[in-house]
Amino acid sequence: MILEQYYTKCLAQGTYYISSNGEAAVIDPLREVQPYIDRAAQEGATIKYIFLTHFHADFVSGHVDLADKTGATIVIGPNASTSYAFAKAEHQQSFSIGDITLTLLHTPGHTMESSCYLLKDETGKAEAIFTGDTLFIGDVGRPDLAVKSDLSTEDLAGHLYDSLRNHIMPLPDDIIVYPAHGAGSACGKNMSKETSDTLGNQKKTNYALNPDLTKEDFIKEVTTGIAAPPSYFPKNVWMNKGVNSSIDEILKRGNTPINAKSFKALADDAEYLVLDVRSPQEFTKEHIPGSWFIGLDGQFAPWVGALIEDIDQKIILVAPEGREEEAVTRLARVGYDNSQGYLKGGISSWKTAGYSISSIEDITAQEFIDGLESGMIEQPLDCRKPGEYESSHVNGVPLHALDNVHSELKHLDKTKVYTVHCAGGYRSVIFASIAQSQGFKFKNVLGGYGAIKKTELKNQELVTTSSCSI
C-alpha cells in the first residue's frame, strides 16, 4: 500500500493519493490533476476512485477533470447534488482499491454531505481516516458555511457534535488523522501547523473531542469568534457542484505572453486588473500604475479570493520569469479562471517601451518609530488581523485590517500620506497597492511588526493583551 499526502501551503490544504496492487484513489484533488495521473503512471496503477469529503468552499477541486482524463468514479457522501455523474455513497459503504478498502463515514456538520473515509489495510486493520473539514488537527470545521433557511449555524454545530461522538471518537486511538486543512485555512478557527496526528493524541489535545464537553457547550464554542468567510467561498462551492472550464484551457489562455504595447492597451481598459505577483520589494521599487500586488511567495490564493471581489475578473499578470504558469494555476485553484496573459519581458519591457512607472516608498521599522516619536508620521496604519492587533500593537496606531481594505479606504483621506505595516511586510504592500490604485498616498514599513518589536522604542509603547487568542 502507498499513502502520500500532497500538502499545498498556500491553501493550507491536504490532498491524498492511495494505491494498492495496481489500483489507486485520490481524495480531495487540487484543480491541476496531472500530478496524480503522473504518480499513478509511475507505478503502473489505474486511478479507480476520486473521493470528495465535501463540496469545498476555499478551493476548486479537480475531480471532474481527473474523472474525465482517467475514467475514475467520483464518490461523494449523502445529501450531495451535482450537475455531473457521481456515485452517491451511503454511510458505512466500502470501496476496494486493490487489497485495501476505504469506508465512507457520513459526518454532517461542516456541511450536510461532509464525509470521512476510513482506510483499512490488506489485513482489515484500520490505519487512517481522512477527515476533510470535519476534524482538523487541533480544531474542527466551521459550521456556518452551509446555513439555509431551515438549517442554522447552531443546527450544523449540533450535527458536527453528533458526528464526532458517534463516528470518529469510537475509532482506535492509533489510527492517523489526515485532515483537508491546516494552519492558515479560513475553514476553521485554531488549526495546528501539523498536517496529521494520531486520533488518540487528538482526543487528549483537541478541545472538540473532550468527552466532558456537553453538546450545548460544544455548540457555543464552535460558533463563537468565527470570522466572516471570504467572499469567494460561495462561488467555489457552486463551482465544485458543476462542470468548470478545463484546467488545460485556463492554462493555455493565461500563459499567453503579451507585448508591452498590447499589455498597456489592456491595462488602460477598466475591465482588466493588472495583478503583480513578484516580491514585495520588487513591487514597491517599481510597478505599473494602478496595478495590485499579491505576491506568489505568500498566502497568494487566499488573498486573491478575499480581495478580488469579482471571481470572473479579467486578470493580466506581471510575474517573475518562469513563474507565469504557476500564477495562472494558483489563481485557478480558487476559481479565478479569467487570466488573459502576462507581460512578456516583465517590468523591463514596460520601461523599455517608455511607459510610466509607479513606486511606494519603503521605510525601516526604526524610521517608522522615530517618525511616530517626532510627529513626522501622522497617519500610521496597522493592517493585520484583529486577533493579531489585539494581542500586541503599537500604542496609538489604529487597525485597518487588510481583509476589509475596500471598506477601510472609504474612511481615509487622499490628501494625506499614510504609513502602513503588517506582521512581516507582505500584507502591507497588498494594502498599499490597492490604496494607491485608488489615488491614496502610502509608505510601507519594511519587516512589519516583527521588525518594529526589535527597534529602540524610546517613548513609544507596545500594547499587549496576553488573554487574546490569535
From TrEMBL:
- What GO molecular function annotation could you give as one example from this UniProt entry? metal ion binding
Q: What is the lineage of its organism?
A: Bacteria, Pseudomonadati, Bacteroidota, Flavobacteriia, Flavobacteriales
Matches recorded under PROSITE patterns: RHODANESE_3
Query: What's the protein called, per UniProt?
Result: Metallo-beta-lactamase family protein
Q: Which PANTHER family match?
A: PERSULFIDE DIOXYGENASE ETHE1, PERSULFIDE DIOXYGENASE ETHE1, MITOCHONDRIAL
Which ranges of the sequence are coiled-coil? none
Q: Which UniProt keywords apply?
A: Metal-binding
Per the record, the domain of life is Bacteria
| Residues covered by the Rhodanese domain | 268-359, 381-461
Question: What species is given as this protein's source?
Answer: Nonlabens tegetincola
Is the keyword Metal-binding assigned to this protein?
yes
Q: Which SMART domains match?
A: Lactamase_B (SM00849), RHOD (SM00450)
- Record Pfam families: Lactamase_B (PF00753), Rhodanese (PF00581)
Q: Which GO terms describe its biological process?
A: glutathione metabolic process; hydrogen sulfide metabolic process
